[in-house]
Amino acid sequence: MKKISNFLVLNIIFYLYTPIIINGQSKSLTVPYTINIKDTFKNLKPFNLSRLGSELTYIPLETTAESMIGEIYQVESGNKYIFINETGRLLQFANTGKFIRQIGSAGRGPEEYTRVLSFCLDTVNKEVYILSASKKMLTYGFDGTYKYEINLGFRPAQVILKDQNTLMFHLVNAPGQDDPSWILTSKRGVVLTKMKNTVKRTIQLGYIVMSSPLYRFKGSVHFMEFGVDTIYYFNNNQKKPYASLFMGDLKMDPNANVKDHRLQAEKLWLNSIVENDGFMFLKFYKGMSNTPVCAVYDKGTNSVTFIEGNGLKNDIIGGTYFWPEQALKDQRLIGYLDAFDILKREIPADLRKKINQTSNPVLMILK
Predict the structure, then answer these.
(1) What structural domains and CATH numbers belong to the chain?
(2) How far apart are CA 312 and CA 10, in angstroms?
(3) What pTM was computed for the model?
(4) pLDDT tens digits, residue range 236-252?
């Protein structure tokens, strides 16, 4: 049980008046959380799984010719199913790990997607929305039935279900363009709201950002624009500040030239967030590389821990490390590891008998 002092700290943080830097200007906003990255980045520490849960379950994903996974780009769980974006196609598994089907097919014809950029689930209506690289969105039922597709007049990279009637798209963030950062539409693609980019990226030889923090927590969508220090959320359909990151000179310059990549090599930008009641799990990238830097923000103590080895220490079973890719409504956390990597570690004997080095990844559920 949390101490009363932590509760008081949390409420003090909630009403903190914090300066936010937008386009080089300081603006004061009231935010629930302030996250100090600058002063904690150098102090790498282990973080024990037992702080988050007490039971870790392994779920091997069935390996067949049709379900062979090269690389996982996105994992979502809903209504007893697990959906995985695997190198541009969408695979559906039962929550036991048994392979069910591929949703849709790759191609350039009707009812086909060129590549799955992103997807989201409507667990109420049992529908999955697939964002294709060809600027269109396709809708399928959880039973694999094709329903309809929409030709979008913009270039999104991510999609999420904002509410039962509204989709939210994050557009490709590229320099030298004046596109919105976010667009809200109906499920049939009717544009409802456009939110312009806050940071004007004027340099032509800048880098292209395909993903930014976009997730649901407590029934509300949370999101963050590349180059901005504030995480926002929707409160009664109003965009509100949720958290402020203090990056200092660690922050990557959003207007840097790709030729200056060496100067940005040790700079950070936030790529994704997973959040539950007590913690935010933050995955940063260094410069223009795919080198991850992971941190955990404890909302109760207002403290940040940069993780030694970029994985949470498994002191429950031992051996494998863990990093959450999704937080479920019941607070369970979902992560995964490649079978090749997991076999090199201490794992339960029954799991070792079920997989080999060429098996599909193994999901891990922490509760």
Answers:
(1) 4-366 (2.120.10.30)
(2) 24
(3) 0.89
(4) 889 999 999 999 999 99
